[in-house]
Amino acid sequence: MFVGIDRGFFGNEGLDVKLKYGVDVEGLVRGEADFVGNDMGHVAFVRGADVRRVCGHSTRGGEHVLVVRSNFDRADQLKEITVGGEENIIELRNILAHYGVDLDRSGIKTPKIEGSHPKQFEAMKRGVGDGAMLGDPWWVHAVKLGYKNMGSGRDYGPGLPTSGISVAAETIAQRPELIGAFVRAYVKSIRYCRENVTGTLETMLKCSNEWGVDDLEIAKMVYDAKAPYWSPEVNAEDVAKLLKLTAEKLGKPAPSAQDFLDLRFLKEALRDS
Fold first, then answer.
1. For residues 262 and 171, is the Cβ–Cβ distance under 8 A?
2. Beta-carbon neighbour count of residue 28 at 10 Å?
3. Is 74 helix (H, G, I), strand (E, B) or coil?
């Protein structure tokens, strides 16, 4: 997203894209944003939200890491873990299960910190909570400061790709040209990220500098860990497995991947790029 804005890919499609933090899929349906890029589109769809996945982001899921204060030796000692959103809860549940702790029965509090990972990181340094579910590069910073890495959702979850771009079905029906332009730019942005390391790192540092992240070494560590998996493409078979698994956990019938995915814009963008 940052590269698409900073390097002009969205602008070249006539789009003035602005990032808005804190909008979930329900907010997407209410019209608070035109697109949502997070890990919850499939969960909201299983729950009945009329949304579609129009392109992917990464070929693997569970990117957030549970980091805890150094004085904790066991997961059953934890009383409060801050999260940035519901996707963190799902990953946290899988991580704690690995250590024999049932999140839903443990009494562990999971307060949501507005502003997501940067604000969680700041709160943790101020003494809030016993730990936090952090994404890149925040968990890297935390470990450098002496916090313990207790694993990621990818380590102890299904590892299926969960993140992507979700759009309200109504928006697709009413403004298909907007979806097409966005996806074309997004495909070019991801390709740039994969092929132009220096330029991507420059954008990463420029956009994260306001959060206090100005370390090229950490930016490169994050890039090396994540860039090989960046992809706009969507594996329908993996999505079907993800929907089935999610439906089982929510006690709902599993919807069809074909009903959730609307990949015509992605296919066109990939064909023409």
1. no
2. 23
3. coil
Residue 206 CA to its chain's centroid (Å): 20
Instruction: For residues 79 and 106, give the distance between their C-alpha atoms in angstroms, rounded to a whole number.
Output: 8
The two three-digit tokens of residue 6, written as one number: 């900073």
By DSSP bridging, strand 81-82 and strand 164-168 are: unpaired
236: number of Cβ within 10 Å: 14
Residue with tokens 């890495």: 149
CA distance 162 to 173: 24
Query: Which distant-in-sequence residues (6+ apart) come within 8 Å of 222 by Cβ?
Result: 136, 137, 140, 204
Banded pLDDT at 59 (limits 50, 70, 90): confident
For residue 39 the two structure tokens come to: 């890990």
Give mean pLDDT, residues 59-75.
Answer: 90
DSSP-assigned letter for residue 36: E
For residues 130 and 79, is the Cβ–Cβ distance under 8 A?
Answer: yes
Which one has a higher pLDDT value, 168 or 63?
168
Residue 234: both structure tokens together: 């969507």
pLDDT in tens, 4-53: 999 999 999 999 999 888 788 888 899 999 999 877 889 899 999 999 99
This prediction has a pTM of: 0.81
C-alpha to C-alpha distance for 117 and 34, rounded to whole angstroms: 23
CA distance 230 to 51: 22
> Which residue carries 């100005």 as its tokens?
214
Please compute the mean of the pLDDT values over residues 89-112 and round it to a whole number: 93
Between 62 and 76, the more confident residue is 76
Give the E-state strand segments of 3-116 in sequence order: 36-38, 51-56, 65-68, 81-82
